[in-house]
User: Fold these one by one.
Assistant:
Number 1:
Amino acid sequence: MTKRNKQDDPSENPLYFEDLSEGDRFSFGSRTVTREEILAFAEQYDPQWFHVDESAAQKSFFEGLVASGWHTVSVTNRMLIDDVFSNVAVMGGSGVDDLRWPKPVRPGDTLSGSVKIADRSTGRHDNRGYIELDVVANNQDSATVLSMTSTLLIKPAGESPGP
C-alpha cells in the first residue's frame, strides 16, 4: 500500500480493496494518554473505581490509575484512522475478535502500534472486499497494551469513494 500524506483527499485518489494485499504491514501512532483524559473517558463511559478514583486505584490489583480498555480501543482506532485508513475506501467495520488488554495503559503512556492484513476476501453475495486485520498497540516500553483482530469492508475499484 502506498502511504499518502494526510493532506491528500482520499475521495480524490483512495486505495481500494485491490490495492491491499495479505501480509501488508503498517505502523501507526504515537499518542500520549494523559491522566485528565483517562479520568474524563472513564467518568463518562466506564466509571469503575480503578479508572476514576486515584487513591482507591493505588490499592487495586493495578496499583494505580489505569485507562479503561475501551479508552485504549478508542485511542488505537483514532491512530489507525489518522495514520493508515484515512486514504483507504473504507465502508465500515463488521466486527472485532480476540480483543485483549495484556497490560494496562497508565497516565503518561505513549501508544503506537502496527497493523497487518491477515486475510482478504470478497463477499459471497456482493463484490465488496473484506480485510481481516491483526492490530497491536504498544506503550513506550514496547509492552503490548492491546491486541485484536478486526474486519473492515473496503470498496472495490470502480465504486465511488464517498459515503
Number 2:
Amino acid sequence: MKDFDLYPQELADKKLVRGVLLDALAEGDLESFREVLRAHLNTVSKLALARTTGLGRRTIYDLLDSSKSFDPRLSTVAALFKDLAA
C-alpha cells in the first residue's frame, strides 16, 4: 500500500488532503482514508465545516471519535469532498 504520511501543516491544505483521500480510496486503503480524514478534521473549525457542508456538528465529531465505527454515509463523504474542493 501507498504511504499516506502527512505533516501537520499539510493537513490544512484542502487540495493535498483531497488528493491523498482519493488515492487512499483508489488503493482500497480505508484505514489510511479514516486516519487522514480525522487528522484533517482536527485542523478545521467544526462549526465552520458544519455550516459549509450542511452536516451536523455531531456527525463531524462522530467521524473524529475513534471509539465509534467508521462507516459514514456516501452523502457525508460527498459533502466533505465538496468542501475540500472549494
Number 3:
Amino acid sequence: MRRRDALKAGMLAFLAACTGQDTQPGPGETDTDPLDTDDSDVVVGCLNPLTPHGTEAEGWTRIPLSDHPEMVDKYNGFETTINGQRVSIAHVDDDCFSCVGTVCTHSGCAVSYRASRNQFVCPCHGAIYGRAGEVIAGPAPLPLPVHPTDFDGEAIWVLVT
C-alpha cells in the first residue's frame, strides 16, 4: 500500500470515528482524492508569469545569477538580508524561486533551506515548511512569511517590504 493510500485510509477512519458519518462515497458519488488533482499549472512560490516583477524603484530587489552562480541549479539556496529582513531564497523548481523569512514561527530559531528535502527546516524543534512557507510538520503554529519572487532568465527578483 502506498503511503498516500495508507494516510488517506487513516484520515477517513478518523473522520468516521469523530463525526459518526460514513465517509465512503454513496450511490452516484465518486471517490475523489484531493491529493490526486492535476496541479501541473500551479507554480507555488513563484509569481504568475502574467504578473511580471516591478522595478527597483517599486521596491523589488534584483539578484543577478552571476552573484550566486550556484542558483543556476535547482535545489540550491542562500540566505541574505533585504530591507533589514533576513530571508532565504531557494531554487525550488524549473525557473521557480521561493523567498521566505528565516524566523521560525514556533520559537524564533533560524530556519534554513534544505536542498535534500526541497523544504525549509528549523533545527530547534523540527518544524518543516514547504517551498511556499506553509507548515508541513512540527510545532510551528503559522507559515513563514513569503515574499513574491520572479525570474527573468538572468536575475532573481524579490519583493521584501
